[in-house]
Amino acid sequence: MSKETPCVAVCMIDPKTKLCFGCGRTLPEIARWHAMDSSERLAVMASLPARMTEAGLVPISGSQKRA
Predict the structure, then answer these.
(1) Is the pLDDT score of 65 beyond 80?
(2) Number of domains in the chain
(3) Is residue 60 part of a domain?
């Protein structure tokens, strides 16, 4: 994946938080990702670790796919 995407190819949305288990983005963010400019994407990416922590989610990496 590109350096300007947090995608780890684990696209599963948590029904409680509405965040992707793999990257922490919301569906609206994922949908408009390619329309965002570089600075907007980088700003979203900078917020993802704290967002995931606050939501109590542990990111699932591409090598840790759920059974």
Answers:
(1) no
(2) 1
(3) no
